[in-house]
């Protein structure tokens, strides 16, 4: 079927698919951002019970462990209250030395990194597919050329 398509038709189709993909990504990211804002308005992150103050709200802090998934034990045993709501936790240390664990949403950076890996994989797969298709086209063109040459040699 690809042998019957002209080059400009294939490029036009590829361009249309690219535009549709970009539009879908833009629309999806807008709806995802709206959903996160609505969820954040209604959701208060729970602070671990050993925290007497919300020091991370009032003083500088350093993030000891970025937002990461709670362990299976913490989820099942409910030993850590912050894991109940979002299943993710973040450990911070305030300037006063107090260590606080709070719930957090899955980090957008992780999602973005996974998306970029997927895009890179798709790009590499597309390039490989193009190269295989190009090589196949060259082989078929060469066979066709050789067949025509043989037919012309027989006529002489």
Automatic annotation (TrEMBL):
Keywords: Cell cycle, Cell division, Cytoplasm, Cytoskeleton, Membrane, Mitochondrion, Mitosis, Signal, Transmembrane, Transmembrane helix. The chain crosses the membrane at residues 12-33. It holds the Pfam family JTB. It is a single-pass type I membrane protein. It comes from Drosophila busckii (Fruit fly). GO terms for cellular component: centrosome; membrane; midbody; mitochondrion; spindle. GO terms for biological process: mitotic cytokinesis. InterPro entries: JTB (IPR008657). It is found in: Cytoplasm, Cytoskeleton, Microtubule organizing center, Centrosome; Cytoplasm, Cytoskeleton, Spindle; Membrane; Mitochondrion. Its main location: cytoplasm. The keyword Manganese does not apply. This is Protein JTB. Belongs to the JTB family.
């Amino acid at each position: 079927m690809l042998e019957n398509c002209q080059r400009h038709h294939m490029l036009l189709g590829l361009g249309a698919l690219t535009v549709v993909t970009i539009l879908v990504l833009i629309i999806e990211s807008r709806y995802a951002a709206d959903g996160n804002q609505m969820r954040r308005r209604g959701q208060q992150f729970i602070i671990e019970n050993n925290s007497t103050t919300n020091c991370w709200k009032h003083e500088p802090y350093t993030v000891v462990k970025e937002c990461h998934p709670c362990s299976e034990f913490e989820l099942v045993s409910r030993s850590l209250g912050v894991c109940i709501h979002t299943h993710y936790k973040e450990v911070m240390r305030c300037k006063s030395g107090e260590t606080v664990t709070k719930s957090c949403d899955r980090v957008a950076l992780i999602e973005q990194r996974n998306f970029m890996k997927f895009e890179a994989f798709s790009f590499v797969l597309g390039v490989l597919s193009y190269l295989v298709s190009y090589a196949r086209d060259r082989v078929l063109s060469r066979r066709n050329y050789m067949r025509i040459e043989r037919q012309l040699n027989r006529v002489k």
